[in-house]
Amino acid sequence: MTELGRSLRLEGLEPDNLLAFLALLGLLRALEASRPGWQPRAAWDLDNPPLRPMLALATPQAAMAICEFAAEGGSDARRPLRFSSERRRRCKAAERSQLYAGSRA
């Protein structure tokens, strides 16, 4: 039986690990991409040692549903960014001007 809840303690993410913190940010981004209505937020669970982050949602969800939609949102985030031709042109122009300025110094 699946238990619904508005918050989920993320036991595997330790507060002193930068990679774990980045994973937490990625989880929030993935959930926001796949289910923006859930309004995912993170907070630290100060009441139950050891210190761990809590995932908070606007509506109660099962842990398995959170995992599924995090994976769905994460797959969207893996796509490379595509810039318009105008943006690429401006970036190349900026690079040339920086190279030119650097050669004059």
Structure characteristics:
3 strands; single chain; 105 residues; 50% helix; three-stranded antiparallel beta sheet; alpha+beta
Question: How does this structure look, described?
Answer:
The chain is 50% helix and 21% strand. By secondary structure, it is α+β, with helices and mostly antiparallel strands. It has one domain (4-104). It has a 3-stranded antiparallel β-sheet with strand order 1-3-2. A hairpin with a 6-residue loop joins strand 2 and strand 3 (52-62).
The biggest beta sheet reads:
3 strands, antiparallel
Shape: elongated
Structural class: alpha+beta
**Percent in helix:** 40-55%
Radius of gyration: 20 Å
Q: How many strand segments?
A: 3
Topology:
Layout lengths: L3 E6 L8 H17 L6 E5 L6 E11 H15 L7 H20 L1
Antiparallel strand pairs: 1-3, 2-3
Summarize the structure in short.
The protein has 105 residues and is of the alpha+beta class. Helix content is 50%, strand content 21%.
